[in-house]
Write a structure and sequence with these properties.
- The relative contact order is 0.12.
- This protein is α+β, with helices and mostly antiparallel strands.
- The longest helix is centred in the middle third of the chain and has 19 residues.
Length: 314
């Protein structure tokens, strides 16, 4: 059965396991013969156009996988890995299409069968497999978009190793570039019965979240947490406790989550925030409800930090 035909007939395939990557199969990236066999053995593609992922039912349905036969003509497919059934997953950018309709046509779809939507604007639900694989593909395709030229000599770069290495085309340079993540800290600062949350100027009214900021050169993650909290809120902290990480390819961050105890309580809001204040347990529950409606399908590390703190409060 052609997986695309079900979307054209408005009967979306909803099996989230089709997005499950059990192994990245790094060895295949340098084995062109075996990679060609993977492509010929029913491989499927995650198509992205202008940073937007493909979803069924005019953008309201589940994410769409495109058969390799309908996408192999597109440039530079990136090998993502193998599913439990041995089928290979690839990511491909429909970048040359000038319009949304042209992008759909390029992968064998008609208007109404599916739609390209910004992942953060998607209003449906995603399984953990769908979420992680879509984030993975988006991160690599963004890196391809921004690494088209050598930062040393300015020559064009060429994709190698199934899209995971970009090599300078200048024979006198030949510098290799690898995908990079920008480390960023995200932290829940707390004191007995209260946690510290802030709001950026661009956010909707009443939406607050944890503080966050990028790790600067020559700085440890722990030092960045202390500095960012001080800069954004004026609060001094101690007893940092590592929580977890989350890839956040908007455009290319790796979020490093921490808890921290407040030493001081007087807030001085920094230039980057519209507001910051202490929230009681009951107020924090209401904030979490609002955050859960924002990027609900992505289950952000900010929500996990807040949810964990609330659970610890009993």
């Amino acid at each position: 059965t052609n997986p695309i035909s079900s979307f054209i007939n408005m009967e979306p395939v909803t099996d989230p396991s089709r997005f499950e990557i059990v192994e990245r199969a790094v060895e295949l990236r340098v084995d062109s013969k075996r990679l060609a066999e993977v492509l010929a053995n029913g491989a499927e593609f995650i198509a992205v156009w202008r940073g937007q992922n493909l979803f069924g039912q005019s953008g309201q349905g589940q994410p769409v996988l495109v058969p390799a036969s309908d996408a192999q003509h597109l440039p530079t497919p990136i090998f993502l890995g193998l599913r439990p059934d041995g089928v290979g997953l690839f990511a491909v950018n429909v970048a040359d299409a000038e319009t949304h309709g042209a992008a759909l046509t390029a992968i064998g779809l008609e208007d109404g069968a599916a739609s390209f939507v910004q992942l953060r604007e998607f209003t449906g639900t995603l399984s953990s497999h769908e979420r992680s694989t879509l984030l993975y593909s988006r991160a690599l395709l963004h890196w391809h978009d921004t690494q088209r030229f050598c930062s040393r000599c300015g020559s064009p770069t060429v994709a190698t190793e199934a899209g995971h290495v970009m090599v300078c085309s200048n024979p006198e340079c030949r510098h290799q570039f690898f995908p990079r993540n920008d480390p960023a800290t995200i932290m829940l600062v707390h004191r007995p019965g209260f946690c510290l949350l802030g709001r950026q100027p661009s956010w909707p009214e009443n939406v607050y979240s944890t503080l966050a900021g990028f790790v600067e050169a020559g700085e440890s993650a722990e030092q960045a947490v202390v500095r960012e909290v001080k800069e954004e809120s004026g609060i001094e902290i101690r007893n940092l406790r590592y929580f977890s990480t989350q890839p956040w390819p908007f455009p290319q961050s790796l979020m490093l989550g921490f808890f921290a105890e407040a030493v001081t309580t007087e807030i001085v809001v920094g230039n980057e925030l519209a507001d910051a204040r202490w929230f009681s347990v009951e107020e924090t529950r209401k904030v979490l409800a609002l955050l859960s409606a924002r990027f609900a399908h992505l289950d952000t590390i900010a929500r996990k930090l807040i949810r964990t703190w609330l659970e610890e409060q009993g």
